[in-house]
Amino acid sequence: MSDDISAVSLLDGHVLSTYPISSDADIKQAIIAARNAAGVWAKIDVKQRVKRLAQLERIILAEQDSIIETISAATGKVKTEVLLGEIYPVLALLRYYQKNAADILAPRAVITVPPEFSNVEAGYERRPYGVVALISPWNFPFQLTLSPLLTALVSGNACVFKMSELSLPIGALLLHLLAQLELPQGLVQQVIGLAATGEQLIDARPDLVFFTGSVNAGRAVMARAAQHPIPVILELGGKDAMLVFADANLERAAKAAMYGAFSNSGQVCVSVERCYVEAACYAGFVDKLKAAVAKVSAEDIGSLTTLKQFSVIEAHYQDALAKGAKASAPLRLDGHYVQPVVLWDVTHDMRIMREETFGPLLPVMAFDAEQQAIDLANDSDYGLNASIWSQDIDKAERVARQLQVGNWAVNDVIKNIGHPGLPFGGVKNSGFGRYHGAEGLRQFTYTVAGFTNRSRLDDEPNWFPYSDSRYLEMRGFIDLLFGSGSLYQRITRNWRALQAFRGYASLNLRQHGRNLWIFLRGQGG
Question: Which residues are designated catalytic?
Answer without folding.
Answer: 235, 269
